[in-house]
Amino acid sequence: MVINDNMLIVDFQNAFNEKFPGLRIEFYKKKHDINAGSLKADQYENNVLLSQIATKGHLGDIEVQPSMTVAELEQQFEDNFGLHVQVFRRSNTLWLQTSSTDDWTLETQNTKGLHSMVS
Which of 21, 44, 85, 97 falls between 20 and 30 A from 105, CA-CA? Predict the structure, then answer.
């Protein structure tokens, strides 16, 4: 996936959600600890340019593969761009932070999220 200077948070969220419809990604002002959640008060609005909140490097390609763990994806955002992200998984009508299951792959998280919507 590519992040460019004119991309809003919502643009990346939509692209991510197309790839993983059972997941959601949010961007935060502060980094969260391992296996810890992020505070809603620290969440950026989705109409913010990613270039305005990136604190490292230049925006560009980021690898997002189903076989990656949530922790690997979140760390990649941190290392490459200085962006603090949190992945959420759908659970019926709710969205849960994946903080206690960051060692699961995106594929596993997505499958679990999609299955929670089927009744």
Answer: 44
